[in-house]
Amino acid sequence: MLTRGGAPYLALELRDRSGTLPARIFRDADLHAGRFERGDIVAVSGRAARFRDELQLELERIERVELDDAVAQQFLPVAYRDLDELDGFLEHLAREVLEPGYRRLIETLLTDAQLRAAWRRAPCTRDGHHAYLGGLLEHTVAVGTLAQEVALQHPRLDRDLLLCAALVHDLGKTREFTYGASIGLSDEGRLLGHVALGLELISGYCGSFMEAGRLLALHHCVLCHHGPEVAPGGRFQSTEALALYRINALDASVKGALEHGIPPRRRG
Questions:
Q1: The pTM is what?
Q2: I need a surface site. Which of 26, 30, 214, 236 has the fewest CB within 10 A?
């Protein structure tokens, strides 16, 4: 943009969790324009001034900041519940998986420090249910807890399959998002989606220690946790897959209603 005198300047909008504020850079505007992208985290210094009765910042310095969890929490919504407590619940649920192959998978996942950090950090969605840092962990614990209760009520279910599937059904979301001043989609998330990413992760972490039939049963549950349309024949091939679908939908819809209100009833 140009001032009345024809000099270039850069117009910005800065924001954190408290709100937004317009800003301007008049010195080296062309240079700064090529150094940053929308959504970058930056540190700035300057002075506040009023322009046309609106408070704005006249910046003297702007620098990109490397994003870590402490920085991200200044800009992105975070879980209401304590993440350490949720981590403890996840570990408790993991210990309830008794079948050797499923148990070893869960233990392998939980001992991967990088994956564990991503699991703790990721949201479930960007603008739906659990749309905040830590949302994935909160949702995983909720679905796992519900799965455990359903298995108690219906002992004919394969309890270990259902509980393992509940804990890993959204694992692909650890690779679905990017983090800056807002939550975005990674290239993997945009092109493949979290279901395909989750199946890839599960297969990669299983190695050769899980019996093929059990791995297929787990894959089917994860594949169908949003509905059976993607399955061969368009139907669930196991009661555990049906149960996971209903449990996942229950937690997602109740949380969505609590956060955004009950959606209007569809007509027709």
A1: 0.78
A2: 30
